[in-house]
Amino acid sequence: MANLSGRTAIVGIGATEFSKASGRSELQLACEAVVAAIADAGLQPGDVDGMVTFTAESSAEIHVARNTGIGDLSFFSRVPHGGGAACGTVAHAAAAINAGLAEVVVCWRAFNERSGERFGLGQASRPMDTSADRAAYSWMTPFGLSTPAQWVGMFARRYMHEYGATSEDFGRIAVLARARAATNPKAWFHGRPITLEEHQASRWIAEPLHLLDCCQESDGGQALVVVSAERAKDLPQVPAYVVGAAQGSGRDQHMMTSYYRPSISGIPEMGLVGDRLWAQSGLRPTDVRAAVLYDHFTPFVLPQLEELGFCGRGEAASFVADGHLELDGSLPLNTHGGQLGEAYLHGMNGIAEGVRLVRGTSVNQPGDVDNVVVTAGTGVPTSALILGAR
Question: What is the pTM of this model?
Answer without folding.
Answer: 0.97
